[in-house]
Amino acid sequence: MAKTIFEELGGKYERQGDYLIPCLTVPAEEEQPIGTWGQRHLDYLKQYRKVTYTNLLTSGRLNTYLADIDRQAQERFERLIESMKQAQGITERLKEENALEWVQHLNNIRACARETVNKEIIYN
Hints:
This protein is mainly alpha-helical. The chain has helices at 5-8, 36-48, 50-59, 62-88, 92-97, 99-122; strands at 13-16, 19-22. The protein is 68% helix and 6% strand.
């Protein structure tokens, strides 16, 4: 019996009843921690970009991709917070003088930065 392309590439079959089922495995990939941003992007891929999710998963690059997205999003988030704090004049002096107002401004800045990162990186 002639070898199939799958067998020529080193693949093997397993007999189950009257059928030969190919033994498929996903390539091993280095486990990297995935934070909140990466988890959000993973949920987005699973729900709205199923082909991209499947391609990344079967090629063994999903974890690396999500870790990279997480790193990019976190860096962008931190840069946005710093630039917004400078633009609005939020300083440590305000924190000393009126802590409640400082917290209100900082929470507002974080919410704006989170929305921007979600729009630019996570849900894009």
